[in-house]
Automatic annotation (TrEMBL):
Gene: cysT
Assembly behavior: The complex is composed of two ATP-binding proteins (CysA), two transmembrane proteins (CysT and CysW) and a solute-binding protein (CysP).
Transmembrane segments: 25-50, 70-99, 111-133, 145-169, 197-219, 255-279
Boundaries of every ABC transmembrane type-1 domain copy: 69-276
Gene Ontology molecular function, alphabetical: ABC-type sulfate transporter activity
Keyword Nucleotide-binding: no
InterPro entries tied to this protein: CysT_permease, MetI-like, MetI-like_sf, Sulph_transpt2
Protein name, UniProt field: Sulfate transport system permease protein CysT
Subcellular location: Cell membrane
Statement: the UniProt record of this protein carries the keyword ATP-binding: no
Length: 293
């Protein structure tokens, strides 16, 4: 007679205990959240991507050959890229000071860094135009030196650097907190110089965070409007940004031109974030491979 061990059907199988979510009603809440995000974010973006092509490709292609629009896009992209590059060293110094040093008035500096998030963008633009205008506190001394800031592309870059700096600082802070100071001490004990410590010990772990901060500041700068229009001058082919051109096209009832500029801005911001995300992952994999080796 076969033993019970050889007859698995004689014994009931043990029940597999399913892991229950700690949050009650997670599936219902997740479904409602996805629906809300779809209506609030995905649907408007999808409408912006489809609207320029409703009348065919001809109006869209004609709008893309507009020299005024190309000049505005070039100014917006170039100013956003330069402002993001300027924010990298400034953000690194600020984040290092907040994390690694006993900075006097640290809490005040920490709150001031987040000020661009809280201030209305129009208030930021008016303040910068007042300070750097021809008769402003900073604009007048700079004008005597032959440097014009307000109503020039330099003023646009300054405004974009102001609104983009918190992205870089807040991205670098948690990475610096997780970076143990013992690495620097070990490198110094092994005879490494300050430049070698910065280049080979500190910068490699910070590169993914720097790439992320650059991408966020660049994407924000592309679509910035309120803080720029008051200090830009808004002169076509010289100091007119792409978001302002969207408003002008809408006031002229040129919906094809407005949606084409908006579509290009949306596509550029999305592609920049995709490229920066891929670069960040590649840098992270390279850092992990170096540590494994």
């Amino acid at each position: 007679m076969p033993s019970a061990a050889r007859l698995p059907g004689l014994w009931p199988r043990p029940r597999v205990r399913t892991r229950r979510d700690a949050l009650p009603g997670l599936h219902l809440a997740l479904g409602a959240t996805i629906l809300w995000v779809g209506l609030l974010v995905v649907l408007p973006l999808l409408a912006l991507a489809i609207r320029p092509w409703q009348d065919g490709a001809a109006p869209m292609l004609a709008a893309l050959h507009d020299r005024r629009m190309l000049a505005a896009l070039e100014l917006s992209f170039g100013s956003a890229a330069l402002a993001a590059l300027v924010n990298l060293p400034l953000g690194l110094v600020l984040a290092w000071s907040l994390v690694r040093t006993r900075l006097p008035g640290r809490r005040i500096v920490d709150a001031v860094i987040d000020l661009p998030f809280a201030l209305p963008t129009a208030v930021t633009g008016i303040t910068l135009a007042t300070l750097y205008g021809p008769h402003g506190w900073l604009g007048a001394p700079l004008a005597r030196l032959g440097i014009r800031v307000a109503f020039t592309p330099l003023g646009i870059m300054l405004a974009l650097a102001f609104v983009g700096l918190p992205f870089v600082v807040r991205t670098l802070e948690p990475v610096l907190r997780d970076l143990p100071p013992e690495l620097e001490d070990a490198a110094m004990m092994l005879g490494a110089q300050r430049r070698q410590i910065v280049a080979r010990v500190l910068l490699p772990p910070l590169l993914p965070a720097l790439a992320t901060g650059f991408g966020l500041a660049f994407a924000r700068g592309i679509g910035e409007y309120g803080s720029v229009i008051f200090i830009a001058g808004n002169q076509p082919f010289r100091s007119e940004i792409a978001p302002l051109l969207v408003v002008i096209r809408l006031q002229e009832f040129d919906y094809a031109g407005a949606t084409s500029v908006g579509f290009v801005l949306l596509l550029a911001a999305f592609l920049s974030l995709v490229v920066i995300s891929a670069l960040r992952r590649r840098l992270s994999r390279g850092l992990g491979g170096g540590e494994t080796a």
